[in-house]
Amino acid sequence: MSGNIFLADRFEAERPGLRAVAYRMLGSLAEAEDAVQEAWLKLSRTDTSDVKNLGAWLTTVVGRICLDMLRSRTSRREDPMPEQEGSLRLPDPVITTPAQVDPEQEILIADSVGIALMIVLEALSPDERLAFVLHDMFDLPFDDIAPVLGRTTVSTRQLASRARRRVQGATPAADTDNARKRDVVDAFLTASRGGDFDALLAVLHPDVIARSDGGTRVPSILRRGAGDVASQAVTFARFAANARLVLVNGTPGVVAFAEDRALSVMSFTIQDGRITHLDILTDPDRLPALDLTT
């Protein structure tokens, strides 16, 4: 029994990091938990006496589980990040407050894993995503990743290199100062609440893109250009009155409420003091799972 308790304690010490791996792989908090739990079941049934680095071993186990889950998503779009209306799916956001200190949440979204980067990861193939996440984000050697993919080390390195180019080419070069970003989000909220079209134009990049994910019941919406996005934001004014500033994956964002029910989560990508991307989760099936309250 003492051996099982020791093993469970070691697993719990690794759990936050394993959740971080699974979240980057799957973009779903619930599926990430499922993957980590499956890794525990595998560990509890495996003789690991010859395993020298349990953390690395568990990381590859979680990676393999996530890879299988990605490959089995039969309803998954061929293009996970389409530039069209009706089919966008945003990854689950990790919501915290500026005063909230949760080490496990910090691990989950460390290394600036914002919604914009998560959207780009969604566009990778399952094999590319695994190679990039395990190597570039968690420093696993290609020799350990290759057996998970059933590829050679050289082929796995090439996969990660291709994924890296795609990520670097598609990830916006965003501002990193959260205080300055909060000022921009504050200005956006103030302009939205006041229906101030000109003030919205001042805070939006001319080529801003706004994407919303309404789930299966509400079509996704794509808006391009400051004028179009500002017009949409003006219609948001009555909801902006009950909006709250939060951290979405560690960067300033907004949750809008109707009474005590969350209506949307808004994530902002900000460059040179202007909003370049606005990603909005409005899915009525997914929002309750985030346990958001006023």
How is this fold's topology laid out?
Elements: H1 2-26, H2 29-44, H3 54-71, E1 95-96, H4 103-108, H5 115-122, H6 126-137, H7 142-149, H8 153-170, H9 178-194, H10 197-203, E2 204-213, E3 221-224, H11 226-235, H12 237-240, E4 243-248, E5 251-258, E6 261-271, E7 274-281
Parallel strand pairs: 2-7
Antiparallel strand pairs: 1-4, 2-3, 4-5, 5-6, 6-7
Helix pairs in contact: 1-2, 1-3, 2-3, 3-6, 3-7, 6-7, 6-8, 7-8, 9-10, 9-11, 10-11
Describe this structure in words.
This protein is an alpha+beta fold and 294 residues long. The chain folds into 2 domains: 2-72 and 116-170, Up-down Bundle (Butyryl-CoA Dehydrogenase, subunit A, domain 3); 178-290, Roll (Nuclear Transport Factor 2, Chain: A), CATH 3.10.450.50. The protein contains 12 helices and 7 strands. The chain has helices at residues 2-26, 29-44, 54-71, 103-108, 115-122, 126-137, 142-149, 153-170, 178-194, 197-203, 226-235, 237-240; strands spanning 95-96, 204-213, 221-224, 243-248, 251-258, 261-271, 274-281. A 7-stranded mixed beta sheet has the order 1-4-5-6-7-2-3. Helix 7 (142-149) crosses helix 8 (153-170) and helix 9 packs across helix 11. The radius of gyration is 20 Å and the shape is elongated. Mean pLDDT is 88; it is low at 77-86.
